[in-house]
Every structure is written in C-alpha cells, then in structure tokens.
Design goal:
The structure holds two protein chains of two kinds.
Chain A (H helix, E strand, L loop, with lengths): L5 H20 L3 H8 L6 H12 L3 H7 L1 H4 L2 H15 L3 H21 L6 H24 L6 H16 L9 H15 L5 H10 L10 H17 L3 H14 L5 H17 L6 H6 L6 H9 L2 H10 L1 H7 L2 H5 L2 H19 L6 E3 H10 L6 H13 L5 E4 L4 E4 L16
Antiparallel strand pairs in A: 1-3, 2-3
Chain B lengths: L1 H11 L2 H11 L2 H4 L4 H11 L8 H6 L1 H13 L7 H4 L4 H7 L4 H15 L6 H6 L1 H13 L1 H9 L21 H12 L4 H21 L13 H4 L2 H15 L24 H11 L2 H22 L4 H13 L4 H4 L3 H28 L2 H12 L14 H6 L5 H17 L9 H4 L27 H13 L4 H17 L5 H17 L2 H16 L6 H16 L2 H9 L3 H5 L1 H15 L2 H9 L5 H23 E2 L1 E3 H7 L11 H17 L4 E3 L5 E4 H7 L18 H7 L1
Antiparallel strand pairs in B: 2-4, 3-4
The chains are: A mainly alpha, B mainly alpha.
Chain lengths: 413, 714
C-alpha cells in the first residue's frame, strides 16, 4: 500500500463525499454507479480505501457538513465496508455492505423517480458478489458459509421495494435474476418459485416492458428450471427465447444457453449441426450427437461417463441419459434397413435374437429378457410401431412408418 | 385523561381494529414516506383502509390534515369513519356522541403534545411503568371531569346473556366509576397491584352476595379498598395458591423456559398495561370478568388450576391480542389438560416448591422484582429457586458457568428473553442416571441430570436394544430416549452415529420412513462432521430413497454428483446407482434382478417401490405384447419368485399364486390355453388394468403401526 499522507487522505475522502452527494442531488446515476462498484476495483475507489485506512475517523468528516450527514448512515457503512474490503477482510466487508445496502434501499424507497435504478442494480450485484467472496473466506476458515443466504433475503427485500406500481417496477426483473443466481448457487432452487409467480401473474408487470437484458437472463434461468422438471416443450420455448434475444456478441452467454438448449432439443428429436457445437466449443455434446445419429449405444454411454461430473453439475445428466431410447430406436431402424436389403418380404419381423446380437457387437451384453423389456418400453413410448410376439420372440413392425419421428415432441407423448 | 380518550375510542372500535392500528405503529419505518401528503389525499375519498401514518407528520402539517378531522365533526357519516380517524381525530370525534364536543376539544388539544409519544411500539410502551404513572396523574387531575364520561359510555355488547355476570356489558356503570376512582388513588404500581386484588375481592364478594347491582358504588367508601390493601394481597394470594393445589398452571412459552415464570398469580401490571394499550377500559373489565368467570367454571368443572385462564388471557392478550379469544374461556381447559398430561409428572416437584413460596414474604419480594424487571437491573440476585442454576452448575468451564449463572438470572428476571439468546454450551448437562432402560418422554423442561444417562450407560443401552427380542416399537422408544440423552449432553461421536445408524436400519426394516428420515438427516450432519460410520451404506440408502420415493430430479442429481469415484466402487452404492438407472429407464427386468441381489437393507427401500414397478411393467407388456404372455414368465421377470432362493418347487408355485393374485387385483385378464397354462390376455388387459386402492391403508398413515400402538405413541 502506497503511503498516503493525512492531508491527502482527507482530500480524497472529502472529494468522494462531494461526488457522492452531488451525484445524488443531480440524480446522476452513472456517477453513483461508479462510486459504488466495488468489484470493478477502480483506481479511485482503491485510493479512497487506502485513504480511509489512513484517516481512521471518516465519520467525523461526514458529520461535519450537513450535506454529508444527510446520507451519514449510508456513507459510514459504505466506508467501513470499503476499508475491510481493501484489507481483505471480506466477511466484515460484507456485513458493513449489507448495512449500507439496507440504508441505501431505504433511501431509494424515498426517491420518487426511478433515476437511481442503475445504482440499485450495482448494489444488488455487489452484495451478491461480496457475499460469495465472504462465503469463500468463511469456508476456508472452517466456518459455515451463510452470507449468500443473507444476501438472498436482502435481495428479496429489494424485490419487494420494486414490485409495486410506478416507474421502479421495471427494475424488478433485474433483482429477480440476481435472486436466481443466488438460489442456483445455494441449491435452493425451489425458492425461485415465489418470485416467478409474482413476475408471471402480477398485473403490474408487463413482461415486454422489462429491459431485454433482464428478459434474456430470466428466460435462461426459468428454462433451466424447466429442464430440471423435464418439461421439454416449455424449456424449449424459454431457452429459444433467450437464445434469440441474447446479444450475439456475448459468446459466453450464448454458450451457456446452448448448454441447456441442446439437450432439450435432442430430447425432442432435433439434432444440431456439428458446426454449432464447434463454434461454441460444446465438445461434450459431440459424441452424444454422433451416438444418436449412428444408434451407437456404447458411444452414448461412454460420452455420458466421460463428462459425468460436468453433466451432473449442470443438471442435464438425466436428460441425456434418457436419449438412450432414441439410440435404441435408431439401432432398430438400422437393423430393419439391413434386413430390408436382404429379405424385403420379412423385413418387418425383427427377432430379439438379432437385436441382442447387434448389441453384443456394441459390447452391450444383454439377455433376451432384457432386450424384450427394452422393446416393450420402445413400443409403449411409441418410438416403435408394432407389437412384440412373446412366444416367438419377435418384434413385428408396423408396415407404415415403423419408426415415427419425434418432430419436436417429447418421447412418450 | 388519556384513558378517557382511549375509552371513547374503544366504545366504537372493535378490538381487532385496535390491534391492527396499534401494531401498525410498531413499524413507523414502513410509513416514512415523502409522499405523506399524497397519502392523505388519496386516502380521503376512500376512507377504507387504515394507513400507518406516523403521528408526527400530522402535527407538523396540521393545515393539510385539518379538513380531514373536521368532516366527521360536521358531517353525519361518523360511523363510516372510525378506522380512518383513530390515530388522532378520534379524540375529537369520539366524545361527540356522548358529550359536548366543545367541552372535550380543548382538553384534547392539551393532551396532544403528550400524546405524541404514546403510539410508539405498543408492546414496549405498555410495559413502561412510566406509562401508567403518567396516566394516573392525568386521571387524578381530571377525575372530576372524567367520571361522567364513563357513565355515558355505551356498551356495544349484546345483553341477552342469561347469566348477567358473564356479560361485561352489564357491569354496573357505577362500579366502573368506583374502580376507576380506586385506581386513581394509587400512587405507584405496587399499590395498584394490591388495589386490583382488593377490588377483585370486593367485586367477587358482591357477586356472591348478589349485591353487585344493588349496591350504590358511587357512594361506596374507597377506604374499603385501600385500608385492606396489604392484608388483601397476602390473603388473596394465599387463597389463590390454595386453589391450585395441583400441578402447573400454564404451559411455559417455551419448553425450556424456567418454570418460575409460571407463577399462578394474576399480573396486575401487565393486565393493566394491556388496558392502556388497547385503550379500552371496558375490554379490560371484560377481560377480568371473563377470566374470573372461566375461573369459576373451570374450577367447578374440573378442579384444574383455575388461574390459568385468568392470568393467561390477560397476559396473552397483551402479547398477542389477535389470538386472545383462544385463551379465554373454555379453551383454556383444553390447553390445560394437554399441558398437564405430559408434564405433570416431572414438574410437580418444582411447582410444589414454587407454591410453597407463594404466600410468603418471598412472594412479595418477587413481585417487586417483577415489576422492576423491565428496568433491566441485571445484578439483582434471587437465585434461590429452580432448575436453571442447578443445571448450569454442571458446566465444566468456570467462565461458562459464570455466564450460565448470570444468564439464568437474567432469564428469570426478564422472562421474555428469546430462547435463541441462550448459550447452550453453558447449559449442557452431564447425566448421572445408571439405569439402562428408559422410556422416551418428550422433554417439557430443562433436562434433569438425575434422569439422563452418561455415555457409558448409553452404550450398554444400545447393546441392550440391539440384542432385544422385543418388537420395533419398544426398540424405537428406547432408541429415541438414547438419542434424547445424547442430545441433551451434546455427545457427537461414533456412539451417536452408531445409535442413529441402528435406529435408521430398524426403521427401514419396519418400513417406518418418517423415523428413518429423521435419523438420516442427523447422520448426514454427523458424517459431515467427519465422524466415521457406515457412511457409504447410508449414501446408498439415501440415493435409493430419492430415486424411489421423492422423485426429485434435482436432489438426485446433487446426491449423485456428491459421490466420489471411490464411493462408486462400494458395492452398496454401485447397487443403488444401478437401481437408479433401472428405475429411470423403466427397465423392470433389471430392477427385479437387482432386487434379488440387494446388499444391506437396500431391498427394504426397494420393497416400497416393487408395487409401482410391477404395475408399470405389466402396463408396458400389455400394451406392447400380442396376443398373450404366459403368467409364468411374469412370475419370473417381476420377482414373484423372491422367496424361491431356497430352491424348492413349492416356492415356485407360491410365486405363481402370488402373481395370479396380484394380476387379478389389478384388473388383468387371465385366460387358460389348451395345455392348461395361464396366460395374460394383453389386449383385454391393456384397457382394464388399474392400480387398486391399497387395502391396508390406515388413517394414521403407517400401516406397520397398530392403531393402539399409534395412540400410545402419541
């Protein structure tokens, strides 16, 4: 830390105070944002933090002038947070920031217009980031991380402030998205439900009115929730919306959307082009797509095993696993086509024996009972049209369209 | 004077409204609004909802609010305004109906200034002794002007009760005046307390003599009250304590609350302050009347601690006004019964000691300290009673003990301290009981070291349970008591894990899933703390449980991702994962193969899914296979041969019979072919198959539990 003289420190603090108060009185949101944005680690903020650590009694400075003391509570907590942040005491920094945020929200409530919405966004963002950092610190000290949870309830409070009539309501979706991020991180996804309900049912909100950025984020998260529920048509709509309106320059975001959209599309029988996977660096799906094309069960299982951790964490594992049935369908279709070449008259009779042999070539050892079981499931789920003659161990395929395409509908519908 | 205003308030406001209004004051923050003016504007036309407007704003800008005050004054819609007016204009408006407004208005104005402080947080405000001292002065000063006001109060309550006494509305007006005069003479809380006791006695006596309505209360000498003050309080407390010769009078707010708080005396301080808070004198009276009424009722009917309802209705109403109804009158008996049923036994000794103290000088001292307790004098020592200090003595560290002692004292004094504030470390007990068997009893008080078994005894107890030949209920009960003893002694080690593991396994065996879940959640924390146990065995169980019973994809994903490569090599875990795969893909053949090869208790959890899986499988088959499927095949594939491991032919046929039985109860269509083999007619079955209502379903939800056992358990 560079040496800062007392006078210099005094000057910096006063300057910050002046800028803060001016920003508020001129309703200059962008300046206010810059003044509050901790995680940007901007030089002015860092030098202010150094100054605060030199000049310990900043609160007396605040008290000196009526102009400052009007926001005394906000500023005092903000300074304390910044001080702790600078010396790397993140838990303390979080606690002070939480108090600051509470005071700020209180003040925000009193401002009639929504001029400070951007600044409130910064506060919401910062508190979440700071809470995550504080939790990391707590975990490394062997304590239970709980700050993110606290940040979640504070964000909920902010949502309450915005969710009403008036110009501030357009900010509600941003806070909702921050809440989603928090809940997904905490693994308490079920808490999203109440927020979603108020966004989707409350009359004060017109979804189209929200900023595009927030709409995309919202659709991304709600789409992910639908993936968990295996409600593929809904997930498809939401994620497709997100993809459509996402800023095309934000490759990372597009990639994140595709990570969920691809399994969803696969589940409803739509296979992506290889270029798409390459362009967005989604190699984990390459083999799965291949397996679906070829009807290669072994490849699918290998691909799942290879990326098991990743798929489990992102929550698409079970969805991908269910693609197995489509792979079986493909395999049967192949057998059918080959049989047709040699003996067109009896091509529609697939012996279980033959299927078992094909599977053995793929190093999948299954006895006839198991093959029969899978065939009954395929027929039941309408992936194969026909019937199974148990006595003769033969699948008799329908002469018309024996392997119906999914055409955008989920399996078994 | 304040009470005067309040009185007129109460005469037309329903109690609930008051509650809403008053509680709205408790959060002035919510209403700190820059748009306060607009608030009023838009409120004026609707006049429906009460908004919590901080009073000071109205005084700062009287010009704007003024019109609002005046409309009801001049207009005729007074009745539609009550909620709107309550925060300030009611001072003007209320007396209007009964007195000349010109007369009250100046008085009100003089009151305003002091009135400003009052609607803060009602809970705090009502507890402040200064609250009523001020009121006393006021009422003394204005008593002359005041008396008529009471006389003219109208009674909103219906008067059609057969028992005149039970109806607060028929309380003679003159008696009201008498009571008010009596209180006006009291100089401080202590006097007020005794005064109330004395009044109570007088009223009761009057009731008994049937002179309540005939006596001229206006001329009744006040000396009857004041001269007998001290003796009255003494004798009446003695009387009260003799009345309740049995067991506790009220259930403590929390199970852990020191029992001293359950003292059986009516608390005049809080009762009175509740009246101040509600500002409803007749409600206060009603309160008292009701309590004394239920007093007698309860007394006569059951002989149960009569003071319960009396004190509680007053006290609870002061804390939680909305629920007041529940605590007064007959409901009190029910609560009493409940309270006594499980706590009588162990509480009686404490209570009897508390009761012995009741009528003595000790009691008087206690009352003093009670009335002072909100002044937060902490060092005040009175630690001769009750369990808390005794338990605290066991704490091993000196400092801990000190905190505990101090804490328990503060605790005794404040009484209202939240359970969360207590340092449990310092209060941990160390058991001395040597008996191995112990019945489980849900604690309703702080644990007594004499009945808690130390670790070595608990270990023996666990072995006893494991070796026991008795039924699950006995074992469950014993294990629960072991768990309880472990908990109160805060033992977290391999023994704890072992106890929970044993219990979880037994619960699985008996199909007692709720108990199993309790154990599992404890085990998760224990394993997370790094205690060795059969963590993989239980990881497998929890995986199976999620797959088969909770059907929650997210939970499943997260528990799967928590498994390390190492874990997945474990036999039980691997088995559970395979079961998971079989279930998600619907592979019934695989499922029933795994069912037969299940390690540990995995099959117990699978048991509970077998029915569903069979139904699914037969459904698949009947839709997909044509024309028939031999029943013998179903027997083999769907695990009806489960018992055939012994390999005898008889068992095989048993499986056949079971299978036929199952198919019939599920609506399947069976035909016999020329060879006499049973076949499932798939086409017919595909439309007729259904899931029957479980025959053995029971109302209490656990078919493994006999109804009688269920009742003894609860």
């Amino acid at each position: 830390m560079a040496y800062v003289s007392m006078g210099e420190a005094h000057r910096r603090i006063t300057e910050y105070l002046n800028r803060f108060c001016d920003a508020v009185s001129y309703q200059d949101s962008s300046t206010l944002c810059r003044l509050l944005s901790f995680s940007s680690n901007s030089p002015p903020l860092l030098s202010l933090a150094d100054a605060l650590n030199v000049f310990q009694d900043a609160s007396s400075l605040i008290r000196q002038s009526d102009k400052f003391s009007e926001y005394g509570e906000i500023l005092a907590h903000l300074f304390r947070s910044l001080q702790s942040y600078r010396v790397g005491n993140l838990v303390e920094a979080y606690l002070a920031f939480e108090k600051f945020a509470n005071a700020f929200v209180q003040e925000f409530r009193n401002w009639e217009s929504a001029w400070a919405l951007e600044a409130l966004y910064v506060v919401c963002y910062e508190i979440r980031i700071l809470a995550e950092k504080a939790d990391k610190e707590l975990t490394s000290n062997g304590k239970s991380p709980e700050k993110l949870k606290a940040a979640g309830s504070l964000l909920m409070k902010v949502f309450g402030v915005l969710a009403g009539k008036g110009p501030k309501r357009v900010g509600a979706l941003y806070v909702t998205c921050q809440l989603f991020k928090t809940y997904f991180k905490l693994g308490t996804v079920n808490l999203c439900r109440s927020v979603i309900r108020s966004i989707e049912t409350a009359r004060i909100f017109d979804f189209e009115e929200f900023p595009r950025r927030d709409k995309v984020t919202y659709m991304y998260y709600t789409g992910r929730l639908e993936v968990f529920n295996e409600n593929f048509p809904a997930a498809d709509t939401k994620l497709s919306y997100a993809l459509q309106y996402c800023n095309p320059k934000r490759e990372r975001n597009i990639r994140m959307i595709l990570k969920y959209l691809i399994p969803v599309k696969l589940s409803i029988g739509i296979i992506p082009k290889d270029e798409l996977l390459q362009n967005y660096n989604l190699h984990e799906y390459t083999k799965i797509v291949q397996a679906l094309r070829k009807g290669d069960l072994r490849l699918l299982r290998h691909a799942l095993q290879e990326h098991e951790d990743r798929f489990l964490r992102s929550g698409v594992y079970l969805v991908l696993e269910k693609l197995e049935l489509q792979v079986y369908q493909r395999l049967m279709k192949k057998i059918y086509i080959i049989q047709k070449l040699s003996d067109p008259a009896r091509a529609h009779q697939l012996k279980l024996e033959v299927i078992a042999k094909a599977l053995r070539w793929l190093e999948m050892d299954m006895d006839l009972d198991e093959v029969e079981c899978i065939m009954t499931i395929l027929i039941y789920k309408n992936l194969v049209k026909g019937y199974l003659a148990h006595k003769s161990k033969v699948v008799v395929l329908s002469k018309q369209d024996p392997f119906p395409k999914l055409n955008g509908k989920p399996v078994g519908s | 004077m304040i009470s005067d205003c309040f009185l007129s308030w109460g005469s037309f406001l329903l109690n609930t409204n008051l509650v809403i209004i008053l509680s709205s004051f408790s959060q002035p923050g919510a209403a700190v609004s820059t748009s306060n003016d607009t608030y009023w504007m838009h409120q004026a036309p609707s006049l429906q909802v009460h908004h919590p407007v901080p009073p000071q704003n109205n005084y700062q800008s009287p010009l704007e609010t003024k019109p609002l005050y005046e409309t009801p004054f001049q207009g005729h819609q007074r009745a539609t305004y009550p909620q709107e007016m309550n925060s300030q204009s009611s001072f003007h408006q209320a007396p209007l109906g009964y007195r000349q407004p010109t007369q009250t208005a100046p008085l009100v104005d003089s009151q305003r200034v002091s009135k400003v402080q009052i609607p803060t947080n009602p809970r705090i405000a009502s507890n402040l002794p200064s609250g009523f001292t001020k009121m006393d002065k006021d009422s003394t000063a204005a008593s002359a002007a005041q008396a008529p006001a009471y006389v003219s109060v109208s009674m909103p309550k219906p008067k059609d009760h057969t028992t005149a006494m039970s109806d607060p509305g028929t309380f003679p007006k003159s008696l009201r005046g008498f009571v008010e005069r009596a209180f006006a003479r009291c100089k401080d809380d202590k006097e007020k307390e005794s005064c109330e006791v004395a009044l109570r006695k007088i009223v009761k006596k009057a009731k008994e003599d049937n002179t309540l309505y005939t006596r001229d209360w206006d001329t009744e000498p006040l000396s009857t009250v004041t001269t007998t003050n001290v003796t009255n309080s003494e004798s009446s407390s003695a009387q009260l304590s003799s009345l309740q010769n049995k067991s506790p009078t009220r259930r403590p707010k929390s199970r852990w609350e020191p029992l001293v708080e359950g003292k059986p005396f009516v608390k005049p301080a809080s009762t009175f302050s509740s009246a101040v808070k509600f500002g409803v004198w007749n409600h206060q009276n009603e309160n008292n009347k009701k309590s004394s009424e239920s007093f007698q009722k309860v007394d006569a009917a059951t002989g149960f601690k009569p003071t319960y309802s009396g004190q509680n209705s007053a006290k609870k109403s002061f804390q939680r006004p909305v629920k007041r109804q529940r605590f007064s009158g007959g409901a009190a008996t029910a609560i009493d019964d409940e309270a006594s049923s499980d706590s009588d036994k162990d509480l009686t000794p404490y209570y009897s000691s508390a009761m012995a103290l009741a009528g003595s000088a000790e009691e008087k001292k206690r009352r003093d300290s009670r009335s002072k307790r909100f002044e937060k004098i902490q060092g005040h020592s009175r630690g001769n009673d009750l369990t808390k200090p005794k338990n605290a003595n066991v704490g091993n560290l000196h400092s801990r003990r000190a905190t505990a002692l101090r804490l328990s004292k503060v605790f005794d004094e404040s009484g209202s301290r939240a359970v969360e504030d207590i340092d449990w470390d310092a209060l941990t007990v160390k058991g001395t009981c040597q008996e191995i068997e112990k019945r489980y009893l849900r604690l309703t008080s702080a644990p007594d070291p004499a009945t808690v078994r130390p670790e070595d005894v608990l270990e023996k107890a666990l072995i006893m349970v494991q070796d026991s030949q008795k039924n699950y209920l006995f074992k469950c009960d014993q294990l629960k008591s072991i768990r309880q003893d472990l908990t109160v002694q805060r033992i977290h080690n391999h023994l704890t894990a072992k106890v929970y593991e044993t219990h979880a396994r037994l619960a699985l065996e008996a199909g007692d899933l709720p108990e199993y879940n309790q154990c599992l959640s404890q085990l998760k924390t224990l394993y997370a703390e790094g205690i060795e146990g059969c963590s993989l065995e239980f990881a497998a169980y929890s995986l199976l449980y999620i797959t088969l019973h909770s059907n929650n994809n997210r939970e499943l994903l997260s528990s799967m991702s928590r498994l390390s490569e190492e874990d997945k090599k474990d036999e039980a875990v691997r088995h559970a994962l395979s079961v998971r795969a079989a279930v998600t893909s619907g592979n019934y053949v695989m499922f029933f193969r795994l069912y037969k090869t299940a390690p540990n208790m995995n099959s117990c959890l699978m048991d509970l899914y077998v029915e569903k899986m069979r139904y699914k499988a037969v459904n698949f088959m009947s839709r997909s296979c044509r024309p028939t499927i031999p029943v013998s095949y179903i027997v083999q594939v769907l695990g009806f041969t489960g018992a055939a491991s012994e390999g005898t032919d008889e068992k095989e046929t048993d499986g056949m019979e079971d299978c036929l039985e199952w198919l019939k109860t599920h609506g399947a269509n069976i035909i016999t072919d020329s060879n006499g083999d049973m076949l499932l007619d798939t086409k017919a079955t595909s439309t007729s198959l259904f899931m029957p209502e479980p025959e053995d379903a029971v109302a209490h939800g656990d078919r493994n539990l006999d109804v009688n056992d269920f009742f003894t358990r609860t």
